[in-house]
Amino acid sequence: xxxxxxxxxxxxxxxxxxxxxxxxxxxxxxxxxxxxxxxxxxxxxxxxxxxxxxxxxxxxxxxxxxxxxxxxxxxxxxxxxxxxxxxxxxxxxxxxxxxxxxxxxxxxxxxxxxxxxxxxxxxxxxxxxxxxxxxxxxxxxxxxxxxxxxxxxxxxxxxxxxxxxxxxxxxxxxxxxxxxxxxxxxxxxxxxxxxxxxxxxxxxxxxxxxxxxxxxxxxxxxxxxxxxxxxxxxxxxxxxxxxxxxxxxxxxxxxxxxxxxxxxxxxxxxxxxxxxxxxxxxxxxxxxxxxxxxxxxxxxxxxxxxxxxxxxxxxxxxxxxxxxxxxxx
Amino acid sequence: xxxxxxxxxxxxxxxxxxxxxxxxxxxxxxxxxxxxxxxxxxxxxxxxxxxxxxxxxxxxxxxxxxxxxxxxxxxxxxxxxxxxxxxxxxxxxxxxxxxxxxxxxxxxxxxxxxxxxxxxxxxxxxxxxxxxxxxxxxxxxxxxxxxxxxxxxxxxxxxxxxxxxxxxxxxxxxxxxxxxxxxxxxxxxxxxxxxxxxxxxxxxxxxxxxxxxxxxxxxxxxxxxxxxxxxxxxxxxxxxxxxxxxxxx
Lengths: 329, 249
Prior knowledge:
Chain A has one domain (2-243). In chain A, 75% of the residues lie in helices and 1% in strands. Chain A has 14 helices and two strands, in the order ααααααβααααβαααα. Chain A has helices at residues 2-9, 12-30, 35-59, 68-83, 89-111, 116-135, 163-184, 186-196, 198-203, 208-234, 244-257, 264-286, 294-308, 312-328, and strands at residues 146-147, 236-237. Chain A has a two-stranded antiparallel ribbon. The longest helix of chain A is centred in the C-terminal third of the chain and has 27 residues, at 208-234. The model of chain A has no long low-confidence stretch (mean pLDDT 93). By secondary structure, chain B is α/β, with parallel strands linked by helices. Chain B contains nine helices and ten strands. In chain B, strands 6-7-8-3-9-10 form a six-stranded mixed sheet, sandwiched between helices. Chains A and B meet through α7, α8, α9 and α10 of A and α2 and α3 of B.
């Protein structure tokens, strides 16, 4: 019991956001805004992928610039399986996870021998290779991508209202739980220790590569799961899903929310999308001259968060709370 | 003193034209504190790196408890009973003292590759970690963040982590480096208490500490061992005085 309680109390904000997502359709139904369900699904999927990347980037200190590739693999495995009539969703997800694990192991094995800028470039290079590989697959639409039907999840009818929505909520909750457990486990603690000081951990007789490849594989699988669900949500798969800018987007979301925090990536994804959605409108009211160039203001906001709150939004809120606490006492 | 536990024979290492290690011979006996001294640039760091396994020698042999470890990786050497401390404090800065020890304890148990229970709340690990800290007298600092520790306390934690896995031989690379007189005295006492428990190869510049602690010394000059013996023999050795202690007489 203590154990299970610990997982949830470790990241109250994370579970609060997951809960809000679970309750969100009540609002959209009452207010008759079904479009916002789609936005919420997109945010959840991006947040989930960012949570996966955070295991490697935040907790492991490995700056992977190619994680969109695993989202792409997850999506394409689903799309291609559907194309050949293998439309059982559970099977597709199992296949996507398996292929992401193997690809993650190979890419990890080859790239984790390097570090710093070389690691960033090698992971980007692998992602670009995979991107152009899918672009070259003419029978699956090449550049234009392929339209697909939602998969058949046997007991769950994905065409029923909100069934895909709650499937994504469930996947998000599962990812959240997995990370809460992993980060505090012996494995997670060793991974963080390796980020802090690799030579000390190696002097303890531990093999850094073994821990890092495992983390890399797990994060690849989480991104693959997000990709498989993304394909079902979009009913369409194209190389766009794994464009290198998406890898960058994942990194921005993590840094914005808070590196190496459990809630950070999901919070970052929410804030990222809300800003993208509302910033142009807000600017039109207060600074009409900048409304068209809202990305400029967005960039300034990102820089401010990174400079003033080194722990992202989570760091800023902790600092504020500490200051308010001091003021009160 | 007992039989040799760490034996180095005919070790050579060159970097281009520079012979950093030339025919080094050295033996650390069971339970002794063996000091390796030599002026700056004598090749102590290169020698330590070869014993530890981060650098491969060009020729020669390193035996740990009679087993040839010359071709073994760092990881394998640690499992065979080699521990080390680093010249620059090499501790986990973002963690507390206890967390440092817990990470060392799970490595000692060779049980770090587990994914389930939270490590920092594991009673068994906390108990083992407590033992690691008690050895150097840091148990009352256990909840401090390492980045908040004084320099001397970090040096002690460094020592504790080096000893955590109960090594047969531990390489102490300048444990007194950067420490004040009081801290040096404290460190000397703690190392003295280790005598007999673990065999120590001590690299140290502080000659007072070396002569207080060492059972035997080996002198390294220009990459080669020019003498070894008891402290009394070494201080009486003409070649050593010439090459190393000479400036004082």
